[in-house]
């Protein structure tokens, strides 16, 4: 564990109402730790239940279902994945909750390609109010229907994002026009403004982007922005990382953590933001753990509710991909032995966190404060135990607080080393490691 002093900068508070804050403060001032903890627990439970509904729309065959799978970290053939390549015949909206974080739900919406398409009736039929924002996908230039839908979404007060899918196909189609040295194959053909004499992936991407944006501008969209993606390595390639970052930046603060939880750990920036958001909740979790211990007078082996802490540490590990399952998956993805990734991890993995591991960490956390308070409880006569409980809870607050804070920092640092290791020797490094 890193030293407590190493992470002593003050963290921001979570987005909770002033009324809730006042309630906690008033309870603590009265010495009613249990009431304060109950309120803290309520706030945490509410946070965990915040839902995010993401609508994915576009023409049939544009890659909507594939995009939904990519966002959920699923391959098309995996269990629970949206079916790919099916002809859309109904106006049904299919919800796909994220496999690990079911409060984030992706909606695979019906196609928008019919000739008598009306954006207002479409939005009514798909229940416009349900969604936080819309993704509008196209695998070629955006159509009139896509543009009119975007305008209607905006007019009704929500955000939309244009996503150009299947960019990998464009890139490989273009590549075929060039020989092994990267020189344009067609003999005698001069490079044009759009097709350079030498193969250049950046030029291909720029051309697609400009083409899409020009078409959208002609269809009346002001300063359109188009994100170029492909379903494979979605969160690492092309505009995938920028799209995810933009979605995150645009979310209201109370929804950021829900979205962050389901983002793959594919950039240093994602890791930094996960840590920042989780840090905001550390003091509430410490309060819950200490308050709960005040209820179990003296019976617990430590003076904190170990259940709350075990759950929190496991959550941190899960969020940073520090579990056997996640590491195996990553190792396979980057074609490296899992042992190599594990070698850079210093904290316990999710699967290794037990009550015993926790007590060891706690004991280390603040020079054995927990052991002392346990002894204190044993030494107190029964009629004094209620007061003892309050004292010990107050003493264990700093140790749980620093335990959580340090563990979170260590897990984030582990995740960063794992990412660095995973990307070692790949071309994606420079792009993601900024
Ligand atoms: N190469 C490539 N093919 C894709 C991509 N996204 C979707 N596809 C393919 O495009 C076809 C239609 O995709 P699907 O997700 O079913 O489109 P939907 O009808 O809009 O849901 C399927 O054959 C997919 O495998 C992509 O990013 N790259
Ligand atoms: Mg589909």
TrEMBL record:
<feature type="domain" description="IRG-type G">
    <location>
        <begin position="50"/>
        <end position="250"/>
    </location>
</feature>
<dbReference type="InterPro" id="IPR051515">
    <property type="entry name" value="IRG"/>
</dbReference>
<comment type="similarity">
    <text>Belongs to the TRAFAC class dynamin-like GTPase superfamily. IRG family.</text>
</comment>
<keyword id="KW-0342">GTP-binding</keyword>
<keyword id="KW-0378">Hydrolase</keyword>
<dbReference type="Pfam" id="PF05049">
    <property type="entry name" value="IIGP"/>
</dbReference>
<keyword id="KW-0547">Nucleotide-binding</keyword>
<dbReference type="InterPro" id="IPR027417">
    <property type="entry name" value="P-loop_NTPase"/>
</dbReference>
<dbReference type="InterPro" id="IPR007743">
    <property type="entry name" value="Immunity-related_GTPase-like"/>
</dbReference>
<protein>
    <submittedName>
        <fullName>Interferon-inducible GTPase 5-like</fullName>
    </submittedName>
</protein>
<dbReference type="InterPro" id="IPR030385">
    <property type="entry name" value="G_IRG_dom"/>
</dbReference>
């Amino acid at each position: 564990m890193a030293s407590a002093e190493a992470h002593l900068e003050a963290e921001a508070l979570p987005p909770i109402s002033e009324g809730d804050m006042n309630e906690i403060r008033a309870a603590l001032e009265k010495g009613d730790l249990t009431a304060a903890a109950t309120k803290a627990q309520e706030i945490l439970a509410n946070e965990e239940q915040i839902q995010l509904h993401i609508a994915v729309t576009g023409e049939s065959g544009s890659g909507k279902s594939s995009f939904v799978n990519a966002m959920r970290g699923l391959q098309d053939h995996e269990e629970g994945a949206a079916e790919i390549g099916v002809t859309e015949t109904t106006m049904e909206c299919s919800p796909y909750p994220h496999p690990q974080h079911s409060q984030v739900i992706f909606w695979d919406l019906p196609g928008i390609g019919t000739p008598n398409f009306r954006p207002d009736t479409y939005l009514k039929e798909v229940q416009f109010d349900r969604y936080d924002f819309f993704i509008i996908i196209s695998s070629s230039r955006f159509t009139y229907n896509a543009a009119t839908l975007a305008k209607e979404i905006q007019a009704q007060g929500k955000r939309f994002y244009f996503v150009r899918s299947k960019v990998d196909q464009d890139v490989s189609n273009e590549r075929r026009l060039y020989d092994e040295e990267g020189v344009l194959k067609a003999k005698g053909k001069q490079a044009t403004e759009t097709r350079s004499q030498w193969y250049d992936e950046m030029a291909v991407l720029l051309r697609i982007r400009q083409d899409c944006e020009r078409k959208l501008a002609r269809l009346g969209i002001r300063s359109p922005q188009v994100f170029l993606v492909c379903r494979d390595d979605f969160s690492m390639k092309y505009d995938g990382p920028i799209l995810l970052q933009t979605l995150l930046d645009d979310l209201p603060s109370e929804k950021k953590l829900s979205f962050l939880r389901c983002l793959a750990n594919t950039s240093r920036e994602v890791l930094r933001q996960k840590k920042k958001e989780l840090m905001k909740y550390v003091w509430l979790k410490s309060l819950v753990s200490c308050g709960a211990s005040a209820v179990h007078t003296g019976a617990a082996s430590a003076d904190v509710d170990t259940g709350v802490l075990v759950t929190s540490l496991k959550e941190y590990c899960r969020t940073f991909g520090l579990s056997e399952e996640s590491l195996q998956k990553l190792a396979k993805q980057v074609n490296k032995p899992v042992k190599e990734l594990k070698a850079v991890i210093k904290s316990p993995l999710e699967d290794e966190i037990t009550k015993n591991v926790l007590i060891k960490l706690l004991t280390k956390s603040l020079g054995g404060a927990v052991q002392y308070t346990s002894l204190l409880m044993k030494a107190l006569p029964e009629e004094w135990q209620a007061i003892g409980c309050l004292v010990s809870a107050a003493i264990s607050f700093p140790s749980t607080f620093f335990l959580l804070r340090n563990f979170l920092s260590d897990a984030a640092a582990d995740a960063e080393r794992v990412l660095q290791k995973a990307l070692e020797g790949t071309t994606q490094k420079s792009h993601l490691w900024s």
